[in-house]
Amino acid sequence: MKAINIPAQDLMKVIAGQNVAANEQIRGEFLLVAASNDHDQLPSAMAGAIADIALGQVQLQALVHPLRIDVDQPLWTAYTVEDDFIKKERHNWFGPEALVIEKRFADFLKDYQGPRDTDGRVPASAVPKEIAEPLLLSDAYWQAYANFVNDPDGRFKAQIKPIFSRQS
């Protein structure tokens, strides 16, 4: 697959659905990689999304499960990566779809009277499959994503807490 290093700030904008301009000569589908950087709270050397680039615009197609890619290429210069390890996420954890998934879980919890762990989390096995499965994927995504965030004081990782009990 064709890949392209972009500034981490631009990757975050693409993932969040904001406009990002690109050179109009760049066209095609690309794996977007946050270039190596040391900016606090931003990912570094991480493949984060697949996007179409055309007419100077970058359009998100899908998030990918965070993956280390640290290729020393200038920004916005295409290169090839093996795509066997690239896994598209079924949901955009940065977009409105994630809010809908979280709302469905919150609605379920309103009437939930079953067991909880000492942190108040519900076991995944107690949640309907159609609600639990996306949340388990979310947990896995955020755990992986946290490994790539420049987080010198640990504040970002401290916010990443699994939704379900460890006994799930």
Task: Give descriptors for this structure.
single chain; 168 residues; 5 strands
Structural notes for this entry:
There is one protein chain. Strand 1, helix 1 and strand 2 form a beta-alpha-beta unit. The chain starts with a strand and ends in a 9-residue tail after the last helix. It is built from four helices and five strands; from the N terminus they run βαββββααα. The longest helix has 18 residues, at 129-146. The protein has helices spanning 8-15, 96-111, 129-146, 155-159, and strands spanning 2-6, 28-34, 46-54, 57-68, 78-80. The relative contact order is 0.17. The protein has a five-stranded mixed β-sheet with strand order 4-3-2-1-5.
Outline:
This protein is of the alpha+beta class. The chain is built from 4 helices and 5 strands; from the N terminus they run E-H-E-E-E-E-H-H-H.
Please outline the helices and strands:
Elements: E1 2-6, H1 8-15, E2 28-34, E3 46-54, E4 57-68, E5 78-80, H2 96-111, H3 129-146, H4 155-159
Parallel strand pairs: 1-2
Antiparallel strand pairs: 1-5, 2-3, 3-4
Helix pairs in contact: 2-3
Overall mean pLDDT: 94
The fraction of residues assigned to DSSP E strands is: 15-25%
* Through-space gap between termini: 36 Å
| Rounded Rg | 18 Å
| Oligomeric state of this protein | single chain
Strand order of the largest sheet: 4-3-2-1-5
Overall strand count: 5
| Element order: H for helix, E for strand | EHEEEEHHH
Main β sheet profile: 5 strands, mixed
User: Helical proportion?
Assistant: 25-40%
Structural shape: elongated
Structural class based on helices, strands and sheet pairing: alpha+beta
Number of helical segments? 4
Low-confidence stretches at least 5 residues in length (pLDDT < 50)?
none
